[in-house]
Amino acid sequence: MATVLVVDDERNIRRTLRMVLDEPGYDVLEAATAEEALEVLEGDDVDLMILDVRLPGMSGIEMLETIRGRDDSRGLPVIMISGHASVAEA
Questions:
Q1: What does pTM read for this prediction?
Q2: CA distance 63 to 28
Q3: CB 7 within 8 A of CB 37
Q4: Are 84 and 60 in contact (CB under 8 A)?
């Protein structure tokens, strides 16, 4: 079973994505901040990360840069999402 890490500061977004991903049988982990997500990545095998662009503290973009610089997570597939970002940010 594949494990998906959902990183979003909005609980309702995390809950909705969990419901969508649970049905086909994905194991879903959640984090509300980039810092929490980095802790999860250190302790769990993650096959895909869904990452919000705007997070409190370290942004999703900064987190992406961080994990791309690490040998253990450089190849992790990441889907970036945002309900607030502008087209220019995308």
A1: 0.91
A2: 19
A3: yes
A4: no
